[in-house]
């Protein structure tokens, strides 16, 4: 298969297979670390988000086809990260990628603990499970594997704030007032307005229900608390801009 012109010069790069919430977080972190990468996905909506964030991307109609991986330079890449929504796809991509490039570092995401052995058998060097700090853990595997080995000896949750601060990233949360112009918008639309400055990693509804890794199609409602990952100042500026809160009036005060 002929490699697209805009990908022909890629070498020693990272391939992100899947641009869901985990893939988006990983892309943002790699961009901050100035590590070359390309995103491959088969959903137009996700690729539009990648484009709006300024990331190099490629639409693969069938991610199970080895020609799609060759198109993004799997034979020249340093690392492939399989973070698709279902474990079976990640296992299959791992198997194909290992066959195409025996020297490739492969990091794969598994939703179920039982998938870990299958991913390793397929050729994954490292497997990331939901119990870990997934995106940050993958970045550490790519950039600082020795540091990750050290962190795994402790409770990774206790290091979350430290890891985020090293990447100049923070988790911020904002509750949407009734009059916010973000009410009624899907997460994909909100992130598009943010132009890649943050991603929404969770939403807590007014009834207390917490939705982690929310789908891009999830619409925001009044009273929803949006939990976003990015640079704190940019997140705060964005949500204040769209909050449109009414001025607080205190009883008993006169002009």
TrEMBL record:
GO molecular function: monoatomic cation transmembrane transporter activity
InterPro entries: NAD(P)-bd_dom_sf (IPR036291), RCK_C (IPR006037), RCK_C_sf (IPR036721), RCK_N (IPR003148), Trk_Ktr_HKT_K-transport (IPR050721)
Domain RCK C-terminal per the UniProt entry, residue ranges: 158-244
Biological-process GO terms, alphabetical: potassium ion transport
Stored Gene3D superfamilies: NAD(P)-binding Rossmann-like Domain, Regulator of K+ conductance, C-terminal domain
Record domain RCK N-terminal: where: 11-128
Protein name as annotated: TrkA family potassium uptake protein
UniProt organism field: Thermosynechococcus sichuanensis E542
């Amino acid at each position: 298969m002929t490699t697209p012109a805009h990908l022909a010069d890629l070498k020693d790069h990272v391939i992100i297979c899947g641009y869901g919430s985990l893939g988006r977080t990983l892309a943002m972190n790699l961009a901050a670390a100035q590590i070359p990468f390309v995103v491959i996905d088969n959903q137009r909506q996700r690729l539009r988000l990648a484009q709006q964030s300024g990331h190099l991307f490629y639409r693969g109609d069938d991610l199970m086809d080895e020609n799609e991986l060759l198109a993004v330079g799997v034979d020249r890449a340093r690392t492939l990260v399989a973070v698709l929504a279902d474990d079976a796809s990640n296992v299959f991509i791992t198997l194909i990628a290992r066959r195409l490039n025996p020297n490739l570092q492969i990091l794969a995401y598994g939703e179920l603990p039982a998938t870990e052995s299958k991913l390793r058998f397929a050729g994954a060097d490292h497997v990331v499970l939901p119990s870990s700090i997934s995106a940050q853990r993958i970045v550490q595997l790519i950039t600082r594997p020795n540091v990750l080995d050290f962190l795994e000896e402790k409770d990774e949750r206790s290091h979350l704030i430290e890891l985020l601060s090293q990447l100049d990233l923070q988790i911020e949360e904002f509750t949407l007032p009734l009059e916010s112009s973000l009410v009624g918008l899907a997460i994909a639309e909100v992130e598009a307005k943010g132009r890649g400055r943050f991603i929404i990693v969770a939403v807590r509804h007014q009834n207390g229900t917490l939705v982690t890794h929310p789908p891009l199609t999830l619409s925001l409602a009044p009273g929803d608390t949006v939990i976003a990952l990015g640079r704190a100042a940019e997140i705060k500026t964005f949500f204040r801009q769209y909050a449109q809160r009414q001025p607080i009036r205190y009883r008993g005060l006169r002009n």
